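Bug #77: duplicate submission created two jobs. Keeping one. Sequence:
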Amino acid sequence: MNQKWILLFAVLALSACQSKKPQVVAVVPAPEVVALVPAPVLAEEPAPVAPATVVEPAVPVVVAPVVATQPVVPANPVVVAPVVKPIPKVTASAPVAAVTKPVTAPVVAKVAGLTDAEALALAKKKNCLACHAVDKKMVGPAWKDVAAKNRGDAGAQAKLEAKIAKGGSGAWGAMPMPAQPQVAAEERTQLVRFILNLK
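Kept job's structure:
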């Protein structure tokens, strides 16, 4: 048994001493290995060692260059974070009936000498509705908010008429109210009365 191992190591050592320089090739399946069976050994003579042979692959191996690729990333990636809202804990000893609030149109007060429709038509004609709405904030404040803020102020009528005529800033944030010289004095009075009577 030891002689087989010695013979195998000798074959490997001799194959490493070849005069050819090894070439770098891609991984190729190993060639079939044929076990060498030693000839019967006579006690007097040592067995001759067969020369080692190197099996060359039948087809030359071509090593392809490795090309690194960059991952494709969109120009403007959009990241959407999920919004998780906690679920309120509901405990009730008896069933609870659902309460629905009826949807109503905005409450518009009537102004002396001017109906609601006429006041809104005047506001539209003078481009007030480009920045304001009756019940929601746009560029400027909602008129209901203006009425609520100035409720109880005796000088509100004159102050708001001057704001329309001359403009102003700082009352409702950074956005200034531009002067509206195209609105006549009587129209300013009617519009401010309409706004201050909103509930």
